Q: What sequence folds into this?
């Protein structure tokens, strides 16, 4: 890592804070894919999870630590020896392991969450950081809810953490409460008042509850912070975190205002966005900055005229700079494997041989059913394929009888991993009948919390993209998934079953067999 005073460390917490988004749980294989790409694109620190949360979390942090070649790997821990020991064990395989320990410092958190007095919190800061420093050389300490913490007490806490051996001090805007001017003043105040502040790196971790996460992060950097904690696509608790792609490109494009550098290969941003979206089943909004579908699209005649004359009339960066394709070429049933592979590369995908062959076969099937296949159709097809590749239970065939003369009936064949099973069910409409058939094949008590359909492209032969969210109210868990198909009912069945698969996987993760099980509330705590 560069010693340049204007070098900003990018700390990615997609695998920890990002995965805490309701319904965004990733499998171990998906986490490793994301971690590998983050390492390849130049992320400095990968926060891989919360090792004490469950055996699954511990395993994923450990496997990420073994996988990455360049980045540091951090494990999150509360201010307890048991948490810190688990984090240290999980990250020990990494060449540059980091323990990230935290405790709340705001009056409201200390009173209602911790139920501790300020002096008790100070003692825990010293003991936890000291213990962590005995395990690894790189220790990050976070003051949870720092932006609502009294300044004098925050200074005492930061000073205590530095004296105990912390190398990075994180000042999180945990609830997305602050504004840029306040955050600049806060970082400036700490760097001026706290003894030893010049010997550590100050970090930002801003949430987006007021839509200010990126602005606050950049304000912190201007005030002297040299680490930004962020996530791909801005994924994270509630309204999310600062988006990695936005903070990186803000510094790349506006060097006149932000004369800072990072180690990120910006041409991989679109690819990372697509991978995380597919792995979590969280769609990227069309008008999302940098990586949204419309980020480099121009429909207005005035804009098109300007673009034809000079691209800088309406684009402040090129699509190539972030790895986005320039055009939307039409693909059809006569397209071969080479053309399809080239198109996937343009769209930011890199598939293994088996995944490519499966995607190509599905593309040919789709091309036979549609007159034109657009970029958006291919994206929906591949994203669904990536998201459901490891699912044990899949839709094989579906026949639905519908119309004005009910009841509507669905005949569903599924692959349950040990052979095909066919069931029939009726319902109040074709979608209800389809979902009842899935419930009959795989009995469960999860409730349908969201059912959403939209057209991927235009025309009567357009693919339908269906999003489904299931909730297990008793366990306090939810899972979201999506699927696309020219037949809306087939897409609905695929999305529902994929969400059910993910919900079951999440149940296993938060309620593992044997060993200590951390509560969901405790697991979701953090900066």
A:
């Amino acid at each position: 890592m560069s010693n340049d005073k204007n070098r900003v460390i990018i700390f990615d917490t997609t695998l920890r804070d990002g995965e805490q988004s309701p319904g965004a749980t990733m499998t171990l294989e998906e986490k490793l894919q994301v971690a590998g790409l983050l390492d390849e694109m130049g992320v400095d620190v990968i926060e891989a999870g919360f090792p004490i949360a469950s055996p699954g979390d511990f395993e994923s942090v450990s496997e990420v630590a073994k996988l990455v070649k360049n980045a540091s790997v951090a494990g999150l821990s509360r201010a307890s020896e048991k948490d810190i020991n688990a984090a240290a064990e999980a990250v020990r395989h990494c060449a540059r392991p980091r323990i990230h320990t935290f405790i709340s410092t705001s009056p409201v958190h200390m009173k209602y969450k911790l139920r501790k007095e300020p002096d008790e919190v100070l003692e825990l800061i010293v003991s936890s950081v000291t213990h962590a420093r005995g395990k690894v050389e790189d220790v990050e300490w976070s003051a949870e809810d720092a932006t609502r913490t009294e300044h004098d007490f925050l200074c005492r806490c930061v000073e205590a953490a530095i004296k105990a051996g912390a190398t990075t001090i994180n000042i999180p805007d945990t609830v997305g409460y602050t504004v840029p001017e306040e955050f600049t003043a806060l970082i400036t105040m700490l760097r001026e008042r706290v003894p030893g502040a010049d010997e550590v790196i100050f970090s930002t971790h801003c949430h987006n509850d007021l839509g200010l996460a990126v602005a606050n992060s950049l304000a912190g950097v201007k005030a002297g912070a040299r680490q930004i904690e962020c996530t791909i696509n801005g994924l994270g608790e509630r309204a999310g975190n600062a988006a990695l792609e936005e903070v990186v490109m803000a510094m790349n494009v506006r060097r006149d205002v932000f004369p800072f550098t990072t180690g990120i290969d910006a041409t991989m941003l679109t690819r990372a966005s697509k991978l995380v979206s597919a792995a979590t089943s969280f769609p990227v909004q069309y008008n999302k900055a940098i990586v949204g579908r419309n980020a480099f699209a121009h429909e207005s005649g005035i804009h098109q005229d300007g673009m034809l004359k000079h691209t800088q009339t309406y684009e402040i960066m090129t699509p190539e700079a972030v790895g986005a394709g320039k055009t939307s070429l039409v693909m059809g049933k006569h397209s071969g494997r080479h053309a399809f592979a080239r198109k996937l590369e343009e769209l930011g995908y890199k598939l293994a041989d088996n995944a490519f062959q499966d995607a190509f076969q599905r593309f040919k099937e789709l091309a036979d059913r549609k007159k034109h296949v657009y970029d958006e159709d291919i994206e929906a097809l591949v994203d669904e394929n990536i998201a459901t590749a490891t699912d044990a239970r899949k839709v094989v065939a579906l026949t639905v009888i519908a119309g004005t003369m009910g009841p509507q009936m669905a005949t569903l064949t599924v692959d349950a991993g040990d052979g095909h099973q066919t069931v029939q069910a009726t319902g109040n409409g074709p979608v209800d009948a389809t979902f009842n058939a899935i419930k009959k094949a795989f009995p469960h008590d999860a409730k349908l919390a969201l059912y959403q359909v939209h057209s991927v492209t235009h025309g009567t032969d357009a693919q339908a993209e269906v999003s489904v969210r299931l909730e297990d109210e008793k366990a306090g868990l939810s899972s979201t998934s999506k699927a696309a198909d020219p037949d809306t009912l087939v897409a609905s069945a695929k999305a529902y079953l994929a969400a059910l698969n993910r919900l079951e996987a999440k149940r296993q993760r938060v309620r593992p067999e044997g060993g200590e099980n951390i509560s969901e509330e405790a697991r979701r705590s953090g900066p």
